Amino acid sequence: MSLFxxxxxxxxxxLTAGGGDGDVAxxxxxxxxxxxxxxxxxxxxxxxxxxxxxxQQQGLGQVVASWVGTGQNxxxxxxxxxxxxxSEKLQGLAQQVGLNPQExxxxxxxxxxxxxxxxxxxxxxxxxxxxxxxxLQGALGGLLGxxxxxx
Length: 151
Hints:
Blueprint: H1 2-16, H2 31-41, H3 47-57, H4 61-68, H5 78-85, H6 87-97, H7 101-119, H8 133-147
């Protein structure tokens, strides 16, 4: 996984986080990919399954269901995403990547639907704790390829 983390840190961090200085991309949690990874794997909040439940509880079940399902992904606004994640969590994540919360929520609104879609190709959310690192690497690698125009 270290080679993948290094690639993400070197390429995605500077491209997606505040200005591209080396400190932002300096590790596995650096850059927007690190934030997406954290949201999808955070055991304290139930990982991907917990994230889906949070969207459902906030009245955005249809939106997140479109990301999980095999059809077209419905969009989410930065404001909706901010409401789901909460200002405290968003502020903490934004500090990690050197962005303000509004910028981060705008970028996450573009990336998170794609990441969830990539992790649920059969239209099913993996059970809590069942998300394999290889699957996450593949999904984020696919997103990185799309971002760089290779997908």
